[in-house]
Amino acid sequence: MYSSVVHLARANPFNAPHLQLVHDGLAGPRSDPAGPPGPPRRSRNLAAAAVEEQYSCDYGSGRFFILCGLGGIISCGTTHTALVPLDLVKCRMQVDPQKYKGIFNGFSVTLKEDGFRGLAKGWAPTFIGYSMQGLCKFGFYEVFKVLYSNMLGEENAYLWRTSLYLAASASAEFFADIALAPMEAAKVRIQTQPGYANTLRDAAPKMYKEEGLKAFYKGVAPLWMRQIPYTMMKFACFERTVEALYKFVVPKPRSECSKPEQLVVTFVAGYIAGVFCAIVSHPADSVVSVLNKEKGSSASQVLKRLGFRGVWKGLFARIIMIGTLTALQWFIYDSVKVYFRLPRPPPPEMPESLKKKLGYTQ
User: Fold this and answer.
1) What angle do the packed helices 62-82 and 84-95 form, to 10 degrees?
2) In terms of Cα–Cα distance, which of 234, 225, 223, 227 is closest to 165?
3) CA geometry: angle 324, 326, 332, nearest 5 deg
4) Which family does the entry's similarity section mention (predicted)?
């Protein structure tokens, strides 16, 4: 058990190519060319693998990207909407910590003031906004991953795969936040300003009348601050955790695992990634919540007023929410891929051409 933990720690998502090769036992030219070769590994392209399965489309095709976008809509829209009560309490803790002193106290005060119906405030903008975000986040991630992989070439795509995941996810989230920003602004107004509006139908016209289009997009920069690091961690940590789980924890190769077993690995890796996501993105999340509640404040002003301790209010609630959310999103997204019989490449392995350059194959 201890050795498995050590292996997982060494296989962290931020290993540089040279360190990763050392870890794999494949680094640098050998001092003894006649020495024993490294352990044999199966070769695969980062983009796709030869798997004995009938797919509904080719990896990287237009149909593939469209169905991945649909998977993003389903995974993000449903999970965020299901967690609206927890999100509502978390937002109120961030904007009014004196009144909502903790997660359990927050639920108690909300139920006392608004009843059970009050816990569902903001469900409509949440569902619409995060469905659009999921479309762009997952759909564009697959697009940019293929694009950047082709630009790097097979060998560099393997060596720099963590950087590839980070770049592809950051690029996708840039566009996803533009799609999310209007609904996120409306959701925060509904959830944190008592008496302002109870529904999206009431909130949107009122916001436009008061501040124009600026009301819907003034939070986009803080959203980038919150969501881009979150998504980079979400995708890179997930991809590398899946790789580490199959390498050090799962007792048999992925090709021998059933679809349900593979989905369990997906869920576990998603939850691990989600915990790190919550921590990385929480300060910016606090700024977004306060900024959308107040008029005339800038992100820097809000950050200065909250201080170091203030930006971490509601972290425990966010870890529970984001950990569960991320795990469920990856599970649902992967299930959609299974349902539509989309290509699901196994964890990457060193290309044969790179092995030959390093002198590990003849």
Assistant:
1) 70
2) 234
3) 100
4) Belongs to the mitochondrial carrier (TC 2.A.29) family.
Quote the CA–CA distance of 313 and 95 in Å, as a whole number.
9
Question: What pLDDT digit, counting tens, does each position of 154-202 carry?
Answer: 999 999 999 999 999 999 999 999 999 999 999 988 888 878 888 899 9
- Among candidate residues 213, 192, 201, the one with its CA nearest the CA of residue 125: 201
Contact between 321 and 86 under an 8 Å Cβ cutoff? The reply is yes
Residue 243 tokens read as 């790789």
Q: For residues 151 and 158, is the Cβ–Cβ distance under 8 A?
A: no
Please report, as a single letter, which amino acid is at residue 158.
Y
- Indicate the burial class of 260 (C-beta count within 10 angstroms; 0-12, 13-18, 19 or more): exposed
* Residue 335 vs residue 350, higher pLDDT: 335
Q: How many CB atoms lie within 10 A of CB 295?
A: 10
* Residue the block writes with tokens 């008029």: 295
- Report angle CA 46, 49, 52 to the nearest 5 degrees: 165
Torsion of CA 273, 285, 334, 146, to 10 degrees: -90
Helix or strand run (H / E) with residue 287: helix 259-293
Question: Which long-range contacts (C-beta less than 8 Å, at least 24 apart) are formed by 80-85?
Answer: 80/126, 80/127, 80/130, 80/325, 81/123, 81/126, 81/127, 81/130, 83/321, 83/324, 83/325, 84/119, 84/120, 84/121, 84/122, 84/123, 84/126, 85/119, 85/120
At 356, list the tokens: 């030959």
pLDDT of residue 329 exceeding 90, the answer is yes
79-93, 282-296, 304-318, 334-348: lowest mean pLDDT where? 282-296
In order of 77, 83, 242, 343, the CA distances from 86 in angstroms are 15, 6, 28, 35
**DSSP tag of 245:** I
